[in-house]
Specification:
It contains 15 helices and 16 strands. It is α/β, with parallel strands linked by helices and 413 residues long. Strand 8 (187-192), helix 8 (196-211) and strand 9 form a beta-alpha-beta unit. It is globular.
Amino acid sequence: MITRRAAARLLAGTTATAALGAGLSPVLAADKVIKIGADLSLTGADAEGATRVKDGIIMAVDAANQGNAVPGYTFELLTLDDGTATAGQYDPAQAATNARKMVSDQDVVAAIGPQMSGAGKAMAPILSQGDLATITPSSTNPDITNPKFAEQYRPAGKPIYFRTVTTDAFQGPNMANYMAEKLNIKSVYVLDDSGAYGVGLADAYQAQIEKKGVKVLGRDRLDPKAADYMTVLTKIKALNPEALYYGGVGQAGIKLAKQAYDIIPNTIKAGGDGVYGASFLIGTGFPAADGWYATIASPHLTADTKAANFVKAFTDRFGVAPEDYSITAYDAALVIIDAVKRVAASGKPVTRSAVRDAIQTAKVPTIQGIVSFDANGDLADRTVSVFQIKKDTSAKLDDISAQYHYIDVAPQV
């Protein structure tokens, strides 16, 4: 730990003044610095959503510092970008580099992120070997926390990958239930974007939709860097499915949505949380985005009265409305802050191992309710929420709360 007095010397003069003006709160000179790592996809197709996730974390960290949540300690964020211009979205190699950077900084006692499961698969083994726990607010691939894959993703033994969302073991199948039971579809074509998240989500969806008796007319894998999906969409048009389901994130999803509007405009279109958020709205635009169904792997939080103060404070500060995953990120930070507080109060050194153990036993009141984890790090709550994009001309294009109309909780498996 470096002391706050030493850190203050580094921030002397105009730099310190500028930092305080940017929202950092003044702290006692003797405070020890606790760093929280944050790995997000701030470059590429998902950058807008990543920024809103980052801002949710900032809200929690600033509030903890201003309220002296852990006496004697100050929290700082180490924010790292796993998106690259070359990849156009998250880059697993960059995510692995970021994980090594966090592990090598001994002041980092816990982390938040990553945003994407492909990044999570690259990071988890490194974080495990570094005994560094992370809480993801949006990564949903179930393999990372599945004990069957413990040797691969947690080679050091203890779970280090926690979530404030549920997994695609529920997001995909629950949406399959919704489309079969509520939309009454009889046929569907399934696509994925070849990434860890997209493939896993589409696999889980397809297995459940077939169990529901819906005919899967085909399955294809999109190249996220390809500019043209006309061939596969023309094939889908000829098969005339009632619905299209896409597992993947924005890089392929945005292009798919634009081209699908031209070729199969009347087909029901749906996806997971990769097609939910400001990045998808901005990239796709209207009318192409209109009508798409999307899920998130959590309760719908931004419209909850318990979130009203957070939503107002977030919007006033950043000039945009939060996404639901802004809140799951905020809640992830609350869990880490609570873990540090409990370790410090016990008189034990605030080490990575002690913080990891405290996260494992967390029962933290948050906006989404009591956050607690099972033995593998997965969230106890398995809610999946369903939305449909319906253009609201009175609101901004990127206003998630206006453009994504909440429908219901998806029927659970």
